[in-house]
Amino acid sequence: MSSAGLVQDAVFLLCVTLLVKPAGSYMARVFERRPTPLDRLLCPAETALHRLLGVDPEREMTWVEYASALLAFSLCGTLLVYGLLRLQRFLPWYEVARMTTPMTPDLAFNIAISFATTTTWQAYAGETTLSNWSQLVALASQNFLAGAAGLSIGIAFLRGLAREKSAGLGNFWADLVRSVLWILLPLSLVGALVLVWQGVPVTFHSSSAVRTLEGHPQIIVAGPVAPFEIIKNLGSNGGGFFNANGAHPYETPTPLSNFLLLLTIAVLPAGLTHTFGRMLRRPRHGWVLYWVMVGLFAGGLVVCQRAEAAGSSALHRGGLEHAANLEGKEARFGLAGSVLAAVTTSNGATGSTNSGHDSYTPIGGMVPLVNMLLGEISLGGLGTGLVSLLLVAFLGLFAAGLMVGKTPEYAGKVIGQTEMKLVMLYTLAAPLAILIPTAIAVRLPAGLAGQTTNSGPHGYTEILFAFTSCFANNGQTFGGLSANSVFYNVATAVVMMAGRFGLAVPALALAGRFAAQGRRPETAGTLPTDSILFAVVLVGTALIVGALTFFPALCLGPIAEQLRS
What's the confidence (pLDDT) of residue 477? Predict the structure, then answer.
């Protein structure tokens, strides 16, 4: 690892750490309805929206009502996006000349599910498939709304742990409005202006015809990129305005813009650990959770950086034993900036990649894959990462309780038989929704047809990575898989829905169970949740359960490829 890369990684983690407390405190004030500096401006807008939607923000919802509202809202968003995409040729800013990829029903269905679940899986190229109207009105609006819905789920889950003898988890519609008005919208406005300063365009003049230095004609596509770019990162979405995503100079023109955009991915999920600590009135526990996240994040950085810096087998066979693997890396950001983005985006449920993961070394490419297989518990998306980390904690505490013959509990809440059934339902969703579709894809001709550039272990990894990314609602991909087919458009859409709703509903049910409980006083036999031992149990459970579940699949893919090289 280069010294410059180490400095960049250290500065990044330092910046995130310094922002954890202010970001977490602000979110706690927002969702606890305590005064904030933006209240005078936003409270009238909030009241107007509540009246328009017919919402009583004081009405508490049970977990069933909260989950039902989430499902209904997501269904409406999906239908809206699907309709706009199917009708885009009749809507403004549609340029027939550059729309060379047909908007088929299965592709429109896939995109609609993708953006309604914050996955933003791209089986298409934005330049050749979507008009600026579709990008701005259909997709960017879902970046706000679906991202806010994900944050609302996380907040409801944290409320369930913080409350005692309560039947309610809050109000979904009130949480949704607050997430948009107080958090996503102000940060997006400021962030978009910063990106414009860095050179990201904002224009409704869609494309320009120019001639290259060689005299050949070329179409340069532009559009309202800056507002789209900032919310895709803040809202844990990640789908790029352009096919090249964060590697496109219109999306990320400078190293500073790359660094700032990565911060926007990490800060809110990291700040939620402090939000949780304040809601639970155990701030030290929030910091323990944060440092567990940092430890896992740093471990991924070290492994990926070393693997890419060591170079590939092809370079070694050519006599370049000490050459780094620069294939697929973004030259403007270097190896360190590309790897930092790979680890941040795979941990942050935001697949806004700036390099080609398909060109990474087998071990280097395995790092983002493992990050997603573990549930993106290091940082994660808006609420989803922290929820997954807490579910891992419940599993570890249950195992520890069995060892000492004590009923497991967390923050005074008993983890009983019903709670563990919900935890296991949440835990088993990933292997079922990832491994079964992967096995089907590698056996069916329709699945193998997507392997247009690679086969063998690397081709298998591409398919495994695709379904993992879709289940994790991340959206990044190994570029060698041609996924715009009926088989992959339908299969990945089903997996995306499983990753969103198959996890959200059990999590909300579990939160409802905890909210209804009282809180037991801690005893000498209680494992302190603000201790190093708790952190060790948490990390150990994540790695052991992850290995037992997915190690055989990894052996068939990146590990086999590494051994063969």
Answer: 85
